[in-house]
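Note on ligand handling. Small-molecule inputs were canonicalized before submission; formal charges were left as drawn, and no protonation-state enumeration was performed. Where a ligand contained multiple stereocentres, the stereochemistry in the source SMILES was retained. For zinc ion, this procedure yielded the string shown in the input block below.
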Amino acid sequence: MTKSEGMTNDEARSLTLRHSGFVISSAFVLRASSFLFWIFPLALYAADHLTVLASKPRWSVLENYQETITHDEFTHLIRDIYCTHGLGDDLLKIDNDSAQILKNRDAQTFFTLRFANDEASRREVPRLWRPAESLPPARPEKPLAGLRIALDPGHLGGRWAKMEERWFQVGDAPAVQEGDLALRTARILAPQLRKLGAKVFFVRKSAEPITSKRPDDFRELARKILIKNGVPQPRADVLDPNDPAKEQTVRWQSEILFYRYSEIRRRAVLVNTKLHPDLVLCLHFNAEDWGDPSNPTLIETNHLHLLINGSYLKDELEFDDERFEMVRRLLSRVCDEELPLADAAAASLAKATGLPPYQYPTTLTTTKVGPSGYVYARNLLATRLYRCPVVYCEPYVMNSRDVFARIQAGDYDGTRNVNGTERKSIFREYADGVAEGLVEYYRKARK
Ligand SMILES: [Zn+2]
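Structure output:
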């Protein structure tokens, strides 16, 4: 479920509020509901333009990418994948033989990226992950041989699901918790991928967070954010969970700093410094607004989509760390891998689930990419920070009648009749669809 888990937000996009002389941008939306709440850059030191919990970009890293990309390829990736909503010359200026990327607005310093003259003379792209075409040939029954895959079950499970608002319960039926469903799917998918030859790692192995921080560790930061956002005396605690003003409490803000920003940044450290995968699969279940979680609305709508990184908003590109991560991601050429991979996984998931493609209600934050019709570019924290190809899966609307019944049916062998149709368990259908897509892609892409 992504409707609110990124730094981008549909409703928020159209508004740029000004407050106390600061531009409050959509990049800082922690979560938006009926009441839109904005979070500031934590630029407590004046010259920093950084997003929440980000560290300063190390621009010198980009020196490794000099002359690794042509002007045309760079321009194509900027226009069609990463900056589909445009960006100003003051942030990134593309000349014939180089691009000037703003490092720091106050100091007016720029990074100069020199282009390769042509494809034939360009230098090799430095990277720690391996594209499919660089992997040695594999036996037909082991198409994923040697591939390092990290499974990232979205969110947290167990007692954390309520805090994350990834929880609903119909009557006395077992509660539906996205984080637990995602982990269950990952546990079924892992042995399948291992059988196909892959080395598989878990970014999250249990219901628990991997960050050692807890909401209380962020109370002071939450208070500062609220004060900067024009809440001079923030309340400590949420009194009524249905009151939209809960977003103005220290409790609510410190929880989101914990389970989203701290947790996802911690996962990125694990992925980037320990696991070094060739691919991360983010596993989620989608949902539509269910209203009161204790009396949720069940609907008929059901759909599927997948996300890759891209479609940065102009406001997001104002932040030094986001602009830097975008350029680094572009230069590492993850897109060459994650887009065809996402397309292959989309095709096989569509076949396995029979689901239609999700249509975002607005094109303001996402951009449809690739031929399948199921894949969008979107700038989420996880798809941005993991330094390797990332395919982010969003099948199934958990509060659709059909999916709810299948979740309640649990996991089982073979097929069962659910609402009049013979179906595999929802977890196996999901895992099989993903595994089949990877087989399809790597069989073709490996030499
Ligand atoms: Zn999710």
